[in-house]
Design brief:
Blueprint: H1 2-55, H2 61-69, H3 72-84, E1 90-97, E2 105-113, E3 118-127, E4 133-137, E5 142-145
Antiparallel strand pairs: 1-2, 2-3, 3-4, 4-5
């Protein structure tokens, strides 16, 4: 009788231990799969962080001046003036105003440099926050985007 009672108990114990091992192994496999699937998302966090920090980068006075000076329209005008004046008139640019709370841009003046005076050719606003350039439309006395600008 002892053998009859003992055998089912031992069998139940063995089945329980085996089941516990299988459950533990299954949970372990699932947790490893979760770690594997979460790795691609860490790359997204890094990409987002970089993109945000790039959009908040402000420009300085030298960069604002260089952005305006390198515009194709400004370079073309400078070449034309120097060619037509046979080198006697130079074209230059300078920052004429720095950003304030009310006006968050650099004011850049492009001008003809004569021996006794400077004559303004163009006025630009360069936003400190991102370097976007606007040009003064002298007909409307409004600053417009470079896309809308049609220099003479």
């Amino acid at each position: 009788m002892k053998k009859l009672i003992c055998s089912p108990l031992v069998a139940s114990l063995l089945i329980g231990v085996t089941s516990q091992l299988a459950i533990t192994q299954s949970l372990n496999n699932h947790s490893q799969m979760g770690l594997t699937y979460s790795n691609p998302f860490t790359g997204l966090n890094k990409y987002t962080d970089v993109k945000i920090s790039q959009t908040t980068q402000e420009i300085d006075e030298k960069t604002a001046l260089n952005l305006v000076w390198k515009l194709p329209q400004v370079q073309r005008k400078a070449r034309d003036i120097e060619r037509l004046s046979k080198g006697t008139i130079k074209v230059a640019a300078m920052v004429d105003g720095k950003p304030t709370l009310d006006e968050p841009y650099y004011k850049v003046q492009v001008f003809e440099k004569h021996p006794d005076e400077n004559v303004t050719i163009y006025w630009f606003h360069v936003l400190k926050s991102n370097g976007v350039i606007e040009v003064l439309d002298v007909v409307t006395n409004q600053y417009i985007s470079l896309e809308k600008w049609k220099p003479d």
